[in-house]
Design a protein that fits this description.
Layout (H helix, E strand, L loop, with lengths): L5 H17 L4 H15 L5 H6 L11 H13 L3 H7 L17 H11 L4 H9 L10 H19 L5 E2 H16 L6 E4 L1 H4 L4 E2 L2 E6 L3 H9 L4 E7 L3 E6 L5 E7 L4 H9 L2 H13 L2 E4 L2 E4 L6 H4 L11 E2 L4 H7 L15 H6 L15 E5 L10 H10 L4 E4 L14 H17 L4 E9 L10 H4 L4 E5 L8 H12 L6 E2 L17 H11 L2 E5 L9 H9 L4 E7 L2 H6 L1 H10 L13 H8 L3
Helix pairs in contact: 1-2, 1-5, 7-8, 20-21
Length: about 600
Amino acid sequence: MSNVDKTAVVKALRDLGAYLQLNGENAFKVRAYDIAAERIAGLTDDLGAIIEKKALTSLPGIGESIAKKIEELATTGKMTALEEIRAKFPPKILELMTVPDLGPKKARALFEQLGVGSIEELEKACQEQRVRTLKGFGQKTEEKLINGLQVAKRAASTGGRKRLGDVLPQADALLEWIKQAPGVKRASLGGSVRRQKETVADVDIIASAPDAQPVFAHFHKFPLVAELIGAGESKSSVRLKDTDLQVDLRVLPDEDFASALHHFTGSKGHHIKLRGLALEKGLTISEWGVFRMKEGENAAAKAGVAKHESAEAKLPIRDEADLYALLGMQFVPPELREDWGEIEAALAHELPEDLISRKDIVGNVHAHTTWSDGINSLEEMARAAKALGLTYYTVTEHSQTSGYAGGLSIEKLKQQWDEIDRVNEVVKGIRLLKGIESDILEDGSLDYPDSVLEKLDVVIGSIHQRYSQDEDQMTKRVLKAFDNPHLHIWGHPTGRLINKREPAPMRMEEILDKAAKKGITIEVNGCPERMDLSPEHVRKALERGLKLSISTDAHSTNELTVHLPFALASARKGWARVGDVVNTRDVKGFLKAIRRN
């Protein structure tokens, strides 16, 4: 068995888990499907081969029942259990759970008591003030749902923009597929995916080959292609299954690869300024190359130069660095090409040459195990972190207020310290640090007494429940938390969920000013749903001399690897250098760096 659609399997498992929640099944059963989806999503081996060998149950977290459902989907194209439970509900009911503050219990109540089965029907019920009449809802809940509906509608109206974390796995798989096509010499992702934007509208791939047509034929055979949108001389576009993601592939001669890659990477603002600089030097830049204008020619007429330009006027561009060098500039990394001052800095040769990268990270910060709501044991996480070449790992479970996430009571926290000591003894070559992700409560206090917090190596303070607080209340809450001398790192600062939940209302600049005064480290969270801080706020933090932690917020061994690039993307787009990041230092340096003023 080959070409099993892994994305479809993951989606089916997650959908089944969501429907089970709506159906009132117990949390452990639901969690089993989430864990199975996580396992399949993180597979590097061929899923079809695993199914064929009847080896699904060898994967941690996948039992006989779930394995049979996966096998059925792979062999027949359907999952009976999913189809049967889906038939009990309206076709759009899962949309409801994209609305902030609307969980499965409330969604079920809305369906059973009001017949609400879609976002449109929920909006109408709120407008008619019928929601507030339900037990457990009330006027305040109805008002929160109205606000949440606006968030969901804005996410749905983003021009089809999807989270980078959802798109990147398919984009990477497609890129590897294209690299195997006949005649391909070079290939790269382009567009907003290459620039590591938090949301993307589509995927651009640029390849070089002597003949585009065999490459297009190979491209169209990619297993996830649902529809061929169009194909021409140098460009072909397809739509993918399930996600409706459009992918544009451009194939050019190798001599044009670098200029085409640069052109289709963007951004528009970056290119407009570059073209202006080029014209001043008697050059024009396009996807087809860099051309020197002939003496006396009109610059405006040459701004749209075509590929038919005379070969004598075309300058050789082997890679993007050559293009920038022609303009007297430093090479500008793709993540920085947003017209945020990078062109001026590159002209002055003041761009950071030591942007943070994967090779610089030596310790994992922020992770969860089976002690709270993680999938893997503490020892499994430690061994996985060691295998990644990391030398320390902060043990930061949820705290006692987060009971929904398995938060640790003081007694359980102290029991975990014994487990940390045991793992430190048996797993050599990596050091586990005792820590916690402590909730910042409504009044700004942390949810353990100082007598407990002072015994920990690392305390991350995060907000998980907003309590409907406004900007002033949220700002004061965070400022108060910073007064606690045992708080080291501010976790996922704005609390946003991309395309789902807006950042918490707060006066960020005032908060960052106090963080700088108090010596608080700011987390750049790599959870793909969060990517929090945003690059704009990373820049603001660095302007104040604040230190950053590149954090995974991992809940499994797979997420230790998967989440890290997203944190790095946010940090790099914010111009973070190696020296700005606390977990580029050895364990002694890390502990010293997070120590408060």
